[in-house]
Amino acid sequence: MTIDVFGSDEQAAVPVDLARFVALARYVLEAEQVRGDVELSLLFVDPRTIADLNRRFLDEEGPTDVLAFPMDDDVTISGRQPDQGGRGPGAPSEAGEPPVVIGDVVVCPAIASAQAEAAGRPVDDELALLVVHGVLHLLRYDHEEPADEAVMRARERELLEAFRAGRAPTGTFR
Fold first, then answer.
1. Alpha carbon distance 100, 92 (integer Å)
2. At what angle do helices 18-31 and 123-138 cross, to 10 degrees?
3. Can you give the residue ranges of every domain in the chain?
């Protein structure tokens, strides 16, 4: 089993500890029991870039803090859902098969910085929350309904606290 998280810092407005956030994204995937050979991309971009993505893919105007772009609608996670067939995280790897690309998480540090300042917390804490939030979206968590939002927010807190404390990732929350 290989979990590869590719990180890229494509902005200059806010210093980003790329290695830390790549490790955090990997931690979330491990905690959510993603199995098999999988890949995820984590990109830090400027407001103009994320505004363009927001407009092109979500028909929303202006920059946002984080976007998640799942690559496979049939992603299944070991312990969460039965395998719907096909190869996804959780399905056994076959020799010669390429890894499953879970998707991309795109974070805007400039927006995160403004949000952190308004909330009175460190920028790194805001960025960490956005990374976890984006990865959980790729794993089909959402916050459209109040009950789903409560589950997602609780899982975000649990993962962030465990990561900061250096605890090994454990089981799925749902």
1. 11
2. 40
3. 3-165
Tokens representing residue 133 in the block = 């939030």
What DSSP line would sit under 148-173, residue for residue? HHHHHHHHHHHHHHHHHHTPPP----
> Are the C-beta atoms of residues 8 and 43 closer than 8 Å to each other?
yes
pLDDT tens readout for residues 73-129? 545 444 333 333 344 445 554 556 788 899 999 999 999 999 999 999 999 999 999
* Residue pLDDT, tens place only, 3-46: 999 999 999 999 999 999 999 999 999 999 998 899 999 999 99
User: pTM to 2 decimals?
Assistant: 0.85
For domain 3-165, the CATH superfamily is Metalloproteases ("zincins"), catalytic domain (3.40.390.30)
Rounded (to 5) percent helix, strand, coil in the chain: 40, 15, 45
